[in-house]
Amino acid sequence: MNRSQDWLAQARRDLDQARDSQAAGRHEWACFAAQQAAEKAVKALHLALGQEAWGHVIAQLLTELPLPVPAELVEQARVLDNFYIPTRYANSHPAGAPFEHYGRIQSDLAIAYAGAILDFADTEVARRTHGG
Protein backbone atom coordinates (compact mmCIF):
# COMPACT_ATOMS: atom_id res chain seq x y z
CA MET A 1 0.00 0.00 0.00
CA ASN A 2 1.39 3.38 -1.02
CA ARG A 3 1.19 5.82 1.91
CA SER A 4 2.73 8.76 0.09
CA GLN A 5 -0.50 10.80 0.28
CA ASP A 6 -0.61 10.32 4.06
CA TRP A 7 2.96 11.61 4.36
CA LEU A 8 2.14 14.59 2.12
CA ALA A 9 -0.97 15.39 4.15
CA GLN A 10 1.09 15.43 7.34
CA ALA A 11 3.78 17.53 5.64
CA ARG A 12 1.14 20.13 4.72
CA ARG A 13 -0.15 20.12 8.29
CA ASP A 14 3.37 20.52 9.66
CA LEU A 15 3.87 23.52 7.38
CA ASP A 16 0.60 24.99 8.68
CA GLN A 17 1.95 24.44 12.20
CA ALA A 18 5.12 26.28 11.24
CA ARG A 19 3.04 29.27 10.11
CA ASP A 20 0.94 29.16 13.29
CA SER A 21 4.05 28.99 15.47
CA GLN A 22 5.61 31.90 13.61
CA ALA A 23 2.46 33.98 14.07
CA ALA A 24 2.62 33.23 17.80
CA GLY A 25 6.27 34.28 17.97
CA ARG A 26 7.55 30.75 18.57
CA HIS A 27 10.16 30.95 15.83
CA GLU A 28 12.18 27.96 17.03
CA TRP A 29 9.08 25.78 16.68
CA ALA A 30 8.27 27.36 13.33
CA CYS A 31 11.74 26.38 12.10
CA PHE A 32 11.45 22.85 13.46
CA ALA A 33 7.94 22.32 12.06
CA ALA A 34 9.12 23.59 8.66
CA GLN A 35 12.02 21.14 8.76
CA GLN A 36 9.60 18.34 9.57
CA ALA A 37 7.28 19.38 6.72
CA ALA A 38 10.10 19.20 4.20
CA GLU A 39 11.42 15.91 5.55
CA LYS A 40 8.00 14.25 5.37
CA ALA A 41 7.36 15.63 1.89
CA VAL A 42 10.59 14.12 0.56
CA LYS A 43 9.82 10.82 2.29
CA ALA A 44 6.41 10.88 0.58
CA LEU A 45 8.15 11.20 -2.76
CA HIS A 46 10.44 8.27 -1.95
CA LEU A 47 7.35 6.19 -1.16
CA ALA A 48 5.65 7.24 -4.39
CA LEU A 49 8.75 5.99 -6.19
CA GLY A 50 8.46 2.63 -4.45
CA GLN A 51 11.30 3.04 -2.01
CA GLU A 52 11.66 3.76 1.69
CA ALA A 53 13.79 6.54 3.05
CA TRP A 54 15.34 6.71 6.49
CA GLY A 55 16.97 9.52 8.38
CA HIS A 56 16.35 13.18 8.94
CA VAL A 57 18.87 14.90 6.65
CA ILE A 58 16.67 16.42 3.98
CA ALA A 59 19.54 17.30 1.64
CA GLN A 60 20.64 13.67 1.66
CA LEU A 61 17.08 12.42 1.20
CA LEU A 62 16.76 14.67 -1.84
CA THR A 63 20.05 13.58 -3.40
CA GLU A 64 19.10 9.92 -2.91
CA LEU A 65 16.03 10.35 -5.13
CA PRO A 66 16.33 8.59 -8.49
CA LEU A 67 15.29 11.73 -10.36
CA PRO A 68 16.77 15.15 -11.02
CA VAL A 69 16.41 17.55 -8.11
CA PRO A 70 17.11 21.26 -8.58
CA ALA A 71 20.40 22.22 -6.88
CA GLU A 72 18.65 25.17 -5.23
CA LEU A 73 16.30 22.78 -3.39
CA VAL A 74 19.26 20.83 -2.03
CA GLU A 75 20.80 24.09 -0.80
CA GLN A 76 17.50 25.06 0.84
CA ALA A 77 17.34 21.63 2.44
CA ARG A 78 20.78 22.22 3.95
CA VAL A 79 19.42 25.30 5.68
CA LEU A 80 16.44 23.34 6.99
CA ASP A 81 18.71 20.53 8.20
CA ASN A 82 20.20 23.00 10.67
CA PHE A 83 16.81 23.33 12.37
CA TYR A 84 16.36 19.65 13.26
CA ILE A 85 18.16 19.55 16.62
CA PRO A 86 19.24 23.06 17.71
CA THR A 87 15.68 24.43 17.69
CA ARG A 88 14.77 22.01 20.47
CA TYR A 89 17.78 21.42 22.71
CA ALA A 90 19.51 24.04 24.85
CA ASN A 91 22.83 22.21 24.73
CA SER A 92 22.94 22.81 20.96
CA HIS A 93 23.95 26.41 21.61
CA PRO A 94 26.84 27.85 23.65
CA ALA A 95 24.36 29.68 25.90
CA GLY A 96 20.67 30.44 26.14
CA ALA A 97 17.49 28.54 25.44
CA PRO A 98 16.75 27.61 21.83
CA PHE A 99 14.00 30.21 21.47
CA GLU A 100 16.58 32.94 22.09
CA HIS A 101 18.44 32.00 18.90
CA TYR A 102 15.59 32.13 16.37
CA GLY A 103 13.52 34.99 15.05
CA ARG A 104 11.44 36.11 12.12
CA ILE A 105 14.30 35.95 9.60
CA GLN A 106 14.96 32.28 10.34
CA SER A 107 11.31 31.27 10.42
CA ASP A 108 10.58 33.16 7.18
CA LEU A 109 13.39 31.26 5.45
CA ALA A 110 12.38 27.93 6.96
CA ILE A 111 8.75 28.29 5.89
CA ALA A 112 9.67 29.45 2.38
CA TYR A 113 12.21 26.67 1.87
CA ALA A 114 9.93 23.98 3.26
CA GLY A 115 7.15 25.27 1.01
CA ALA A 116 9.39 25.00 -2.05
CA ILE A 117 10.41 21.44 -1.17
CA LEU A 118 6.81 20.48 -0.44
CA ASP A 119 5.69 21.92 -3.79
CA PHE A 120 8.39 19.93 -5.58
CA ALA A 121 7.47 16.71 -3.79
CA ASP A 122 3.74 17.29 -4.28
CA THR A 123 4.21 17.81 -8.03
CA GLU A 124 6.42 14.75 -8.41
CA VAL A 125 4.13 12.52 -6.33
CA ALA A 126 1.12 13.65 -8.38
CA ARG A 127 3.01 12.91 -11.58
CA ARG A 128 3.70 9.36 -10.43
CA THR A 129 0.44 8.50 -8.70
CA HIS A 130 -2.11 10.34 -10.83
CA GLY A 131 -0.31 10.50 -14.15
CA GLY A 132 -0.22 14.28 -13.80
Describe the protein.
- With 132 residues, this protein is mainly alpha-helical.
- It has a single domain, classed as Up-down Bundle (Four Helix Bundle (Hemerythrin (Met), subunit A)), CATH 1.20.120.
- It has five helices and no strands.
- It has helices spanning 4-23, 27-48, 58-63, 71-81, 104-129.
- Helix 1 (4-23) packs antiparallel against helix 2, helix 1 packs antiparallel against helix 5 and helix 2 runs parallel beside helix 5.
- The longest helix is centred in the last third of the chain and has 26 residues, at 104-129.
Task: List its traits.
132 residues; mainly alpha; Four Helix Bundle (Hemerythrin (Met), subunit A); 5 helices; 64% helix; elongated
Number of helices: 5
Ends apart, CA distance between termini: 20 Å
Second CATH tier, the architecture: Up-down Bundle
Stretches where pLDDT is under 50 for at least 5 consecutive residues are none
Q: What would the average pLDDT be, to the nearest integer?
A: 96
- Which term fits the overall shape? elongated
DSSP strand content:
under 5%
Structural class: mainly alpha
Order of helices and strands: HHHHH
Oligomer: single chain
CATH class, named Mainly Alpha
